[in-house]
């Protein structure tokens, strides 16, 4: 998926349902209002191209061997 609006419709619907439940439970919380405000800011930055998302997958090197 190259753009946030490129997500499959099923994912979007699921995310909307979760957002509705979270809003119903926490809509009156100051922390929720702050999160909404910050999310709107990120959305504007993404839409303008000033911010981009990258998924980075890092894995461990395995067990650390200790020298004796």
């Amino acid at each position: 998926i190259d753009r946030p609006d490129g997500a499959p419709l099923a994912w979007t619907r699921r995310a909307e349902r979760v957002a509705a439940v979270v809003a119903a439970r926490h809509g009156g919380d100051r922390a929720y209002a702050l999160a909404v405000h910050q999310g709107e800011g990120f959305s504007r930055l993404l839409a303008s191209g000033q911010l981009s998302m990258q998924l980075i997958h890092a894995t461990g090197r395995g067990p650390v061997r200790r020298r004796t």
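The chain has a mean pLDDT of 89. The first helix runs from residue 9 to 26.
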